[in-house]
Every structure is written in structure tokens, then in C-alpha cells.
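Appendix B. Extra example for self-study. Work through it before the problem class; the solution is given directly after the inputs so you can check yourself.
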Amino acid sequence: MTRGDYAVLGLCALALPALFVRYGLPGSSGTQARITVGNSIYAQVPLSRAQVYRVPGVLGISEIEVRAGQIRFTHSPCQGQQCVRSGWAKRGGEFIACVPNRVSVSVLGQGAGGDYYDSINF
Amino acid sequence: MRCDALAFVCIALFGLCACSPGNDTLYKESGYAMGALVEFTVYGVDAARAKAAVASAQSDLKFMHGNFDPWHPGSLARMNSLFALGGRFTAATSVLPLIAKSTELSRRSGGLFNPAIGNLIRLWGFQTDDPPPAGPPPTPAHIAAVLAQQPRMSDLQVTGVEIESHNPAVILDFGGIAQGYAADVLIEGFKLAGIHNAIVNISGDVRVLGSHGAQPWRIGIRNPRGAGVLASLQMNRDESVVTSGDYERFYIYDGKRYHHILDPRTGLPTQGAASATVIDAEATFADAAATALMVAGIKDWYAVAKAMGVKSAMLVDAAGRVYMDPATAKRIHFEIDPPPQVVLSESL
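Solution. C-alpha cells for the complete assembly:
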């Protein structure tokens, strides 16, 4: 190995994290989530900061919790409570919807590596 | 060595950049249309073209909803009223293909998929979410009275564009097939618009076209008895996956849970299966078959799937056990740890 080889390998080691940040890996956890009310984006929130969001829907307030890179509904004014029972979402492409209250959250895949799930069947 | 290493690293980094599955051409749009959560995904064309195709699909969906909704003024509600009066009349032509499909699939399912039981659905209150049904459930006497009327798809006689019902109790409710049918229609519209890679998801009924670049579309299947995603599936190029489940709409009355998928034989909510998933090229077929397998339950699902010509199916019972055929088992990747207990059937 020459000095030049070491330099090239060093450059490579520096470039890979940058490429990872830019393109991500399919299947990695998302870093952000989008909260939608009706057909409009209500907020795009980081999954790195623990927080409870109170989101007004058509029936009332949905409470959405972010903790440890995950997101979930903790309270909903809907009757079925399917959204609350859905638990945590953390992988890119996962989403939880409260159809009666018209509030939904979707986890955004990291970088252009894309979402782990392209869509959810239920 | 130096030149070789440099060239290798340059080519590798360039290749990584060029081949990364970039989503520069991935267009997603979701929202609520006619009470359903609808999601469109288009890949491989510029955003303006994708947006125009999705706008056209939204318009088609609105048209279909107006025609297929039995509980609000429109084509199907009018036809249901006329069935009760008897006699022949001119059908709404946009509904006729759905009637033909439903009649055929109802026959193949041995009547387990039966869209003629609108009366029963109304008796339970599941015809509307506004206000949501809250109980009490109908009495056994009321259920028996509705079952005694025996409405079936075969009661309908179609001649050209004219239709008549030989049973005034027929009330069509296409809740077990219309979303799959709509997904098929919208994907055909995408094809005509020159879109070759797309997903249409209508209230969880998924139809895909093409792929996500070099990767197949990957669909997560929701866990009917737990949180999150139960399993994932890499889709073939023109394929659908539809799940019918007891968790989507229900009410609890006096501590007992009543869900919206009704068994046409007993008049009661189906028992045994928490969900039934069918994978097929056609979402229309998958939708109707998933409904029929929910009604068939864990004991009879295999026989009904065979009779209908289902090639790929997966059921989950109340305890979370998974039942499926070997071909489906090869494609399913469980996303929960530990994976569920699996009971394999013979090949379909």
C-alpha cells in the first residue's frame, strides 16, 4: 500500500457517511413523520425529540406521541380506537390513520433510500 | 496499484450515486375521498404528469363512489328502490360490470360473498359511519326475518342494459368488492395515461403496477391482532393484495364486540378469522375472495379458496396463528419477533 492508496481509502471512509446520510438505506427507521389532517399536511415532526402533539381533527383532538424514534396515537375521539391500538410506527412508509377523525401519521423514509414499505395493506 | 485503487474507488462511488434508488421521480398523494383513506404512488414520470394522472384518478373515484353508494341518492340507491317495486327497468350502465362480476364471484363462493344482503347490513347499522353504529345488535327474530327473504345475486336478471329482480328483498351493497374494483379501474387508467409504475391504495386495498425502479414494490400487511405490521410482501409487477378484517369497523355493546363482516348464512358477524388476505392479479377478485374467506373462517377457508380459484391466501385467527398455502408462505416475510405460529395448507 502506498501513501496514495491510504489517502484514497481515507477519502472513501469520509465519503461513505455522507452518502449514507444522502441516500439512506431501505429498511432503516425514519427520522421524521408527517401528520396530516384531511387532505392537508398539519406538521412534519422530527422523531428524535420526545413530544406530544395535540392535533385537531373533525371529531376532536387526537393526541400523538413521539418518543425514541417512534410515533403513535395515544388518544383519539373516535369510537373504534383502531388508531390507538395500532401502536408505534417507526419504519419509513409505516402509517397510522384515524379515518373518523381524518388524522393520520406517516413515517418518512430516510433520504432517497426510500421507505421500507411502499404502502400498507389493511 | 495506486491508479487501480483510485479508479476502483471512483467507479464505486460514482456507481453508488448513480444506482441509488432515488425518489426524485416518486410522487405520493394521499387524502380522504368519499370517507375512505386513499393513497396514490407514481414512480418514473415527472411530478406534473404524475399529478395530472392522480387528479384524473380522483375524478374517476368520485364518479364511481356516486354510482356505487347504496345509501345515498345515486345510481345504485335508485336501482335498489326499483328492485323493491319489481318489474324491469334500465340499469345504470356504470354499475352493470360490477353486478356481472359480483354475480359470478358470488356463485363461485357458494354464496359466502353475497352483495345482495344490503337489508342485513342496514339491520345491523353498518351501512353508515355517520353516526357510527352503536348497538344494540338486532334481535334473533329480526335477523331470521331478513334471512328468510334469501336475497341472492342470482335473483337478478340482466338483459342488455335492462335489469329486474325476482326478489324484492335484494338490496345491493358492494362494500365487499367495490374498492378492489375501483383500484383495478384506476390502475387501468394509469396505464392509458402512460404510467407504468404505480400503487393505488383504497382503504387498505392495494393494487400495484410495475415496480419501484429496480426494486419490486414492498407492501406491509397490518397485524389484525397486534400493533404495527405483521408481514411484508414484495409484489409482482401487476398484482394486488387485499385484506378483509374484523378490526376495521365494529361496535361494543354490553361488553361484546360486533364487527361489520356479516355471514349471509347466519346473519351474524363472521367468527374464527380475524383477517383474510388474498393476493391476485385482480383487486376485484381479491376483494371479493377475501370477504368470502372471512365468512368461510379457519375451518373452511381452503375449500372455498379452491372453489373460487384463489391462488394465494393468508388468514389470521383470534390467537394470532397464521394459516396459508405454501406458495404464499414463500413470499411472506414476517415483521414481528417472534414470528407467529404458521399452519400450512395444501397447495392452492
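Self-check: The first helix of chain B runs from residue 2 to 19. If your reasoning did not lead you there, revisit section 3.
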